[in-house]
Amino acid sequence: xxxxxxxxxxxxxxxxxxxxxxxxxxxxxxxxxxxxxxxxxxxxxxxxxxxxxxxxxxxxxxxxxxxxxxxxxxxxxxxxxxxxxxxxxxxxxxxxxxxxxxxxxxxxxxxxxxxxxxxxxxxxxxxxxxxxxxxxxxxxxxxxxxxxxxxxxxxxxxxxxxxxxxxxxxxxxxxxxxxxxxxxxxxxxxxxxxxxxxxxxxxxxxxxxxxxxxxxxxxxxxxxxxxxxxxxxxxxxxxxxxxxxxxxxxxxxxxxxxxxxxxxxxxxxxxxxxxxxxxxxxxxxxxxxxxxxxxxxxxxxxxxxxxxxxxxxxxxxxxxxxxxxxxxxxxxxxxxxxxxxx
Length: 342
Description:
CATH class of the largest domain: Alpha Beta
Keywords: Membrane, Transmembrane, Transmembrane helix
Protein name: Cell envelope integrity protein TolA
GO biological process, one term: bacteriocin transport
GO molecular function, one term: toxin transmembrane transporter activity
Oligomer: single chain
């Protein structure tokens, strides 16, 4: 805006100077003509020749002075015109340079504005990019946090589920063990009652023998007559002893079968069953310590896949319950079982 004002002022100054120059030339020419015309005015009068000569001399002098003054004035006007022309050219040159400077400044300003706009646009892009990156970072962070929460929740749920299943399994195992223990105690109680009965029978028989012996001693005289009867009595006692021995063996066999059923059930619980195993079986031989600790397991025959699964299940059980009866324990330390997936 300031440059435009300077340019307008320069033009106005230049125009004024040209007008002054033209006016000076016009007025100068008029003065010269008027001044030169005056000496030509002659009045017809009678005067003294000396006076005329003197006046003519004065007129010449005045004319010469006027001519010299006119020449000086013209010279000054020419100098002024030259100076004005010089000033005009200088002013035009200054105006031209000013215009060029204005053009350069406008170009520079335009370029600067373009650079500024580019910088603003780039800054805006960077800001938008930064905002987008921050949004993406927050999104990823939120997603990671949600994933972690879900993961922890799943881990917690899995642990709770596993704990519940373990507790349920432990409860079932406890119930099975309690039932097995109750069965064992019931059978032990039955065996004890049977043993007490057998013992009582043996005691009664012994008492009977003792009384019989007393009777025989008292009736020695009659021994020979009653020998046949005594032989019959002793024969009956021997039959009863045999019967008691058979009951003991039956008790041992029952306990072995009961524990074999318990062992089979424990193995079945740890058996990884596949649909293809149904209808197949495997015969295994288990060696146990007197404490019930597993010493070895071998397969005697059956489906290969079922046998592999059965051996794994036996190994998982590891320790099997043992009764207190040593005769039963002796039978259980080396036992054969049949595993059949259901």
